[in-house]
Every structure is written in structure tokens, then in C-alpha cells.
Design goal:
Length: about 675
Amino acid sequence: MEGRQRIVGWGVLALWVIVIALAAPLAGKLGDVQRNRAVDYLPASADSTQVAKITEQLPGGDSTDLVLVYHREGGLTAADKATAAREVREVAAAHPLLSTPRPVPSEDGSTLLYAVSSTEPGADETARDAFVHDVRETVSGEVGGPGALATDASEVYGSLDGPLLYTTVAVVAILLIVIYRSPFLWLVPLVVAGVADFLSMAVTYALHQGFDISVSGQSTSVMTILVFGAGTDYALLLVSRYREELRRTPRPYDAMAAALRGCGPAVLASSGTVALGMFCLLAADMNSSRGMGPTAAVGVLCALVAMTTLLPALLVVLGRRVFWPLVPAYGSEPKAARRSLFAAMGSSAGRRPLAVLVTGAAALAALALGALNMPGDIKQEDSFSSTPEAVAAMKTLAAAYPETSTQPLTVVAPTAAATRALDTARATGGVVRAERGRSGGGWTEISVVAAHPPQSAGETATIRELRSALGEGVYVGGSSAEQLDMTDTEARDRRIVVPLVLLVVTIVLVALLRSLVAPLILIAAVVAVWGAALGIGALVFEPLFGYAGSDPGLPLLSFVFLVALGVDYGIFLMHRMREECLNGSDPAAAALTALRTTGGVIASAGLVLAATFAVLVNMPMVPLAELGFVIAVGVLLDTFLVRTYLVTSASVLLGRKVWWPGPLAAKPASTSGSGSEPEPVRV
């Protein structure tokens, strides 16, 4: 019998080898389909997106716009100006340009800029990057502008994969070694998480090819974090139950089967809730948010599949010895543990539940007020933790040309209405000049220079006024317009996605817990966690981390992740509480028992998840760092304050009303645990 059981384990491993072999060609292509331009994040209906699509159809195709910046403190010399002119001629000789670049000197004579625009690269990002690099090799000044900024952003995102993966693996490995206190056991879930990450990359690439979902560096980075964080959480729960069953069952195969029956359904329910929450992002208009939904869900589901098939097979094949030196022998009893931290926390919540609940809620509300101090929307050039050349050029231009924009807006109008559009643009307040550009396919391009610096309040007002004056059928785009469209779209998405997430998660919780009150407690708790975490972030982003603004998508993405992940842990706690009630425990005692029995393993899981998201804080992209910080802080608040104190104290105060309107709210539970309802899952 035991031999056949080991064969089953080896058979599962063989199947996974086949899966990995099939996934390898797809996983390696995921980086090739990432798109990290601002316009790639926007919905098709946005003005900026329409401009980008139309300009691709104009003669020569999409243009790559650069700004060559020559600067010397105290003023440029005649030799500097001669060098600049010669280098610009070399660029024009090497690449076809839309027009001859003309020098634009600053008033103080310290800076000279040349606007360079070429259709040579077209819409191909590899060709664009090659063009930017060639120009940078030719000129001695700084190379900025939208094209250079897109190249720098692409290179930064491309450099994330290695450091992000290595750092995440190192953090998870250290935590698992501390938790398991074994020189071997930690490696098993870590390897399985790596396999799940590899599989998720292949599935995401297949989804992109089949359904054209948007894939960005941000979404793939978050997917990797979720795979390792959520996957390790599932491993902690499964291994903890497996260790327990090994003491009661002689054969590892039978112990693993019992462990999967015991905690598998709860893990399945919690991962399903997280995946459904992520899929709600499909309702977003922002391509980046809509693409992150299925990408994040794929990461969670791949982690679930790997941790419930590959991990059990490996543990069964390796046998009890993988737990060395703390091997759980058959028939042994675990060492008597000291009174746990969670038992002490539960006791304090049980003695004064009202005081604990009021104090904790007041603390969260006070922290949430910090969100009122959230810095304004981050500018494109401030999205980098470091200072790439394009950003340095933009800062030089902002200082040298404080009263005008160095980043033209692009207007596209039907050719028949181009003259009227040009006259309207020139007559619009806040516009310095407007010039007619390429025409083709029934459309004409107009370059508009605003009187205010890029992404300033004045330029934003000019863009809105232009769009209003030009009317339907004429589109205003460019880098600044893209940022404005992103902000407007994020505001719309919050109004749609936030209620949808709350509705979907509430329905799932009602179905799982067979109650209305318990789900509302969990929903209120995770929403409070989100507000407090966002408030803490707002208080530290600028003074502590030096971030010049916050990502417009931060509130929405952090809400979706914290609600889904917070409810994930709440399911484990409430399931155990419900089981204790069904087995005859008093509701208050059931709440404290559930905290005591699940607290340790869920706290370990929370620490791992928070640590993996905290890895993003060290990444060179501010939006990723802000998202990682808020989620990490939120997970810690949920683990050690909200779930431990507030949910427990609310459950103690409400008693059986927690399970209203289910049968548990109306009558004492059967001491045998039998009744009209099946016994819920133990964690």
C-alpha cells in the first residue's frame, strides 16, 4: 500500500515536469509583450489614446519626440553653441526627421534646446529604444522628451524582474527558516512557489495572446509578489495541518490526505475570494488596472494549484525526515507550549470587548485621517526613485524655461476642419503657439505649445479649455494630456470598481459563512484597514521617502488588494469560530478559541505576505513602491490589530447575533456538531 502511495506522489511530480516543459516556451516570452508607455495604460476612449492611434496612421507612422538640452551654468559659450549645432546636424544626417530642429535659447542664456521628432522607429519599442540610444551617443547634452522618458521607463521596468525575484525569494526563505526551524523544510514551499511563478508567467502570456489583456511591468511585478506571498501562506496552513496529522497517522500519504480534507476547502474558498476580487478590476477603464485583474488572479490560482498538488506530492515523497530535527513521530504529542501571544491577546479582548473595539476603531479612524494629507498626483518625471537622463533633462528645462512648456501638446483634427482647429487653438488662453504638422488618412496633426510648465495646474486648465473649444471629433494628446486622462479615468474606475468589489466579496462571504452579520464585520474591518494604511502612507510618502506625489491608481489598487487579502485571513478565523459554535461552544469562547488556534499560523502567513509586498518599496518605480508600502502596512494592521482585537471583540459582544440570520443565531449549537448544516472546515 505504501509503495503504491509513493508511486502516486512520483506520478504527480512527473505530471508537473511535463507542465513545466510545456510552459517554458511561453513563460520566456512574457517580457516581450509588456507595454509600459503611459498611453498603453489608458482606455481606448481617451483623447490621448485616439491621438496615439491616429498619429500612427499619418505619413511615417508614430513619431518619437525628443528634446536635446545643452546647458552650462553661467551661460553657454560660442563653442558650446557650435558643438550643439554640429551634433544636431549629425543626428539629422543619421535619421530622417519630421522637420529641421531649431535652437530655442533660454532667457538667461544658460540653456539651449532642440526639439527632434522622427518617425523612423514607428510604434516599435525596440526600434524606439535604439533610436534614443543612438541620439544619446551622438550628442553631448542631455536627451529628454516623451520618447526618451518612455525608453528610460522601459529599461527600469525591464530591470525589475531579476532583483524583484531574488529579493522576494531571499525574504521568504529567511522567514520560512525562522518559522519552520528546519534546514530542509523551508526549501520545499519555496521551490513550489518558484514553479507557480513560472507557470503564472506562461498562463499570463497565453491570456495576452488569446484575449489581448494588457501586460505591464507593474502587473507582472505584483503577480510575482502575490505568487510567493499567497502561495507561501497556503503552504504554511497546509504544512501546519500535515504536521498535526503525521502525529495521528502512520503513513505520510494518509496524513496528507487528511490535511487536504481538513484545510483544503478553506484554502480553496479564500483563494477563490481573492481571485474574484482581482477579477473585479476587469470593470476598470484603465488598461493597466484591467490587465492587472486577470494577471493577479492568475498568480493566486497558480499558487493554489501548485500548493495543493505539487507541494503535497513533494512532502509525501520526502516523508517525515523533511521536518528534521523536529520530526513529528507517529503517536507523539507536541511539546507543551507556553501560553501563546494570541491567547493573551484574546483574553484581553474577551475581558473588555467594548473598550477594545472602541479604542481600536478610534485608532484606525485617526490613522485614516492621514489620507487627507495625501500628496497630489505624481508627475511623470517624478515616477522614478532614481534620476534617469530623461528626467534630468526635464528638470533642467523646467528651471531654464519656467514660463513656458517644453513638452508640446498634440492635436489631431479631421483635415477638412484643420484650419478652424488651428485658429481655435491659437485663440485659446494659455497657448503660446500652434503649428500645422503632418496630414494623411483624413487627419491633420497640430503641435501646440502651452504657456505653463508640463503637468502644472495652468497647463491642465489649458488642456481642458482646448478640448472644450475644439469640440467633438478633435482630440488633444501628448504626455501631459495622457497624465490628465489617467487621473480622470482612475476617478471613474474608483466609482465603479470599489462598490463592485464590496458586493462580490460580500456575496461570497454570505455564501461561505451563511450569515449576514459576520460578513459585514469582516468587510467593515478590511475597509478600515485600507483607510488606515492609506493614511499612514500619506503621512510618510513625502517627508520620509521623498516622493513628490502619489500614483492616481494607488487608492483603487490598494483597496482591491487589501479587501481581497484581508477577507482571505478573515475566512480562516470565522470558519474556525463557526466550527467551535457548531460543536457546542459558547460564542464568546468560540471566538477566543478560534483566535488562539488559528492566530499563530495566520500571523506567520501575514508576516510573509507583508514582507513580500514590502520588497516593492525598494523598487526604482515610485508607483510600485507606494503600492507595496500601503499593502504591507495594511496586512500587518489586519494581522495584529484588526483580526486579533477588533473582529474578536466584536464577535464576543454580538454573541450568537454574529451568525444572524442563520440557525446558529437562533438556537444553541449541537454538542455533537451534527445538524442540518455540514460541519465547516477546520484550519
